Amino acid sequence: MTDSTAASKTDLLHKDDAQARVDRIIGFQQELAKLEQEKILRLSEDDRQKVDSYHAELLKQLASQFDVDTTKTQKQMSWGMRIISFLGA
Fold first, then answer.
1. CA distances from 1 to 5, 27, 70, 77 (A)
2. Distances in whole angstroms, Cα of residue 6 to Cα of each of 22, 51, 54
3. What is the DSSP secondary-structure string of 29-88?
4. Coil, strand, or helix at residue 25?
5. pTM for this one?
6. Are 1 and 51 in contact (CB under 8 A)?
7. Residue-wise pLDDT tens for the chain (89 aa)?
8. According to the model, what pLDDT value does residue 5 have?
């Protein structure tokens, strides 16, 4: 998939949709790592590189377009800021 195709897939999303997509990608990556660790599934190097590149580009685009959290640390910081904002209100 090209960069422009990945970009077009993000055009109609809202921030909540974008964050849900990011969370699914991260979950997929974690599950794939677990399946590989347990020797249940192993993608070829070529397929793994294609998936990793696609996800990296998509995460980059979603982060820049919607300011979503793409790491656990970012997500924790966002929750902390929401709590602080709520308490301050």
1. 6, 21, 21, 32
2. 13, 12, 8
3. HHHHHHHHHTTS----HHHHHHHHHHHHHHHHHHHHHH----SHHHHHHHHHHHHHHHHH
4. helix
5. 0.70
6. no
7. 555 555 555 555 799 999 999 999 999 999 999 999 999 999 999 999 999 999 999 999 999 999 898 887 776 676 777 677 778 87
8. 53
Please provide the distance, in angstroms rounded to a whole number, between the alpha carbons at the two ends of the chain. Answer: 45
CA distance 22 to 26: 6
State which H helix or E strand residue 19 sits in. Answer: helix 15-37
CB of 38 closer than 8 Å to CB of 47 = no
